[in-house]
């Protein structure tokens, strides 16, 4: 049984994340917790807002049952909370033993000049839970090629390795480990050891290592995504040098992966 949390602000991007989550976990027995956070203190005005939110989330749950494939393995629960999104998400992760968070890159008020809005940014950097971030143009397709950009500087925890291999094995997908470096840079002993650990853990699963030289990480990721027809990018939140450049740089016209390809962020 997997427990999935889907924060929503009822935007089109949030609905796209719902669709993606239902399809991504179509083979799994899941409880989906659909969360909407109403802002504001406990005043009469916020009570009225709460009632409005309650009606909206009921409509959303009804829409899920009407418009998305009927899957007997899936159950949906609505959750309304008041306060701040990150605090509410943390609470749900603990209370409902959440395995994955799935959310859109931005909501109704998201800034358009960055790949990821503030809500998604705060969740993936401040909540220690595996999170799938779904861009506005992303549509679910059977996972065949998964990219894993890494600097090999972080020691991979068993939980992280298990999450990666579980997704690879359940989808019979291939893992493409991508390391981008300067022309003169070589792996140090710690990086070599971490690479060997990753290689051993991926084991007999189809995987390969790719070493590319370029100062512009986002350009290399874009080229790699296109050539390999990648349909999921997996990253470690603590790989900050990659993480920030791939997800948090200003939008560039030639870079399309952050509007089309979902990200799985692991902690």
Automatic annotation (TrEMBL):
Which Gene3D superfamilies does this entry report, sorted A to Z? 3.40.50.12370
Residues of the UspA domain: 3-135
One Pfam family, short name please? Usp
- InterPro entries in the cross-refs: Universal_stress_UspA (IPR006015), UspA (IPR006016)
| Family statement | Belongs to the universal stress protein A family.
Q: Return the PANTHER family for the record.
A: STRESS RESPONSE PROTEIN NHAX, UNIVERSAL STRESS PROTEIN UP12
Under which name does UniProt file this protein? Answer: Universal stress protein
The source organism is Seonamhaeicola algicola
